From TrEMBL:
This is CCHC-type domain-containing protein. GO terms for molecular function: nucleic acid binding; zinc ion binding. The keyword Coiled coil does not apply. Residues 324-338 form the CCHC-type domain. It comes from Peronospora matthiolae. InterPro entries: Retrotrans_gag_dom, RTL1-rel, Znf_CCHC, Znf_CCHC_sf. It comes from the Eukaryota.
Length: 383
């Protein structure tokens, strides 16, 4: 078989001189056609075609080869783009994975500093005005944030003492450095020392007899809240608190409205009472601020109210009775109505006094007056 192919190829190359009208490029294309279709088939095809048809067939074959190469190049370019995109995605994933590993390694080596929250609580002085239970609530809220160590909790609690409470704590620490083993021990000893005896019993008794009085609803509610917070071991149930709150209210629209409702908690009762009290105060303010519109005179006749005239007359008469006369110094009339005689002026007898000359002093006037009264002097008589 191979021997036949070699013979055909030799005979095909031998016929190159018979196709001298074909160029080298075209003959290379004919050889490629022979390697694809077979040499015998190509020789038969060329012999059956004229020269123009041979040129056209070879040109079409070359064009088909070019199109096939372009498709291969486009396919390779598409595959290359896909490969590049895939490599880019893989590189990004590897970079992100490496960054996470570095962050985890850095976090394990350097622990992140915990966020701090600054909370300021009031100082407990150990006086009767300070509520120990309320101070314990502030202390628990502050230490629950970041303070987990027992010794730090005790130190934080001691730093918020003042007055005689701080003096008491420092005295115990000086006597026994381990006096406060934990925060619970510190609270217990502080309560035994500074909490009033039977404080809950006294708060419960005051709560039972509490009345609103002249206070506002808000102040009354705040007092009830304070007394309720002082009863911690055996707290009063909500229905009893609601009953105490409603009984302590003053008689009026607020209390009447409260008794029409079914309330389940003290806070609900306080909220409704404050709303009703605010509405009542607003209604009173609106009614007192009302002013009757001014009526202007239109020039026509107007009805006269005799009762108003009589009341004005009586009022003027009563006012007149309180006035004092400037002539007789008696009450009940004015000076122009007074029947007492007109008082005489004190300067009536001195009206004929000679006028004082210019340049004459007080001493000269006195001397002249004395001379007129005593007569001529002795010196004048002798003369």
């Amino acid at each position: 078989m191979n021997m036949l192919d070699d013979e055909d190829e030799q005979s095909f190359h031998a016929t190159r001189a018979g196709y001298s009208h074909l160029s080298d490029v075209e003959w290379d294309a004919v050889e490629r056609m022979g390697s694809t279709m077979g040499i015998h088939a190509v020789s038969v095809m060329l012999e059956a075609l004229n020269r123009d048809a041979q040129h056209a067939t070879i040109a079409k074959f070359i064009q088909n080869e070019l199109d096939a190469e372009r498709e291969k190049v486009a396919l390779l370019h598409q595959q290359g783009s896909q490969q590049a995109e895939l490599l880019r995605e893989q590189g990004a994933q590897q970079f992100e994975l490496l960054r996470q590993q570095q962050a985890a390694a850095g976090g394990s080596m350097h622990s992140r500093r915990p966020e701090t929250l600054k909370i300021d609580i009031s100082k407990y002085r150990g006086v009767e005005e300070d509520s120990l239970l309320r101070w314990f609530v502030e202390l628990d809220d502050a230490r629950a944030r970041r303070i987990d160590d027992g010794d730090m909790q005790v130190a934080f609690a001691q730093s918020n003492l003042a007055g005689r409470a701080k003096t008491w704590a420092l005295g115990l620490k000086l006597h026994d450095p381990y006096a406060f083993e934990s925060l619970e021990v510190f609270k217990s000893r502080l309560r035994q020392t500074f909490e009033p005896p039977r404080a809950e019993f006294r708060a419960r008794t005051e709560l039972l007899k509490l009345k609103r009085g002249k206070r506002g609803v808000h102040a009354y509610a705040q007092h009830i809240r304070h007394l309720t917070s002082c009863i911690s071991s055996n707290p009063v149930d909500d229905h009893s608190l609601v009953s105490m709150f409603m009984q302590g209210l003053a008689d009026g629209p607020v209390k009447t409205h409260m008794f029409r409702l079914e309330l389940d908690s003290l806070e609900q009762a306080i909220s409704i009472a404050e709303q009703e009290d605010f509405s009542l105060r607003q209604a009173r303010a609106s009614s007192t601020s009302y002013r009757q519109p001014i009526r202007y005179d239109n020039g026509g006749p107007e009805p006269m109210e005799l009762c108003y005239v009589e009341s004005e007359k009586a009022r003027s008469t009563g006012y007149k009775k309180l006035q004092r006369c400037n002539r007789c110094q008696k009450t009940g009339h004015y000076a122009y109505e007074c029947s007492a005689p007109r008082p005489v002026s004190r300067d009536t007898g001195r009206s004929d006094r000679p006028p004082m000359r210019k340049g004459q002093g007080r001493g000269s006037a006195v001397g002249a007056k004395t001379q007129q009264r005593d007569g001529p002097s002795k010196n004048g008589q002798d003369q």
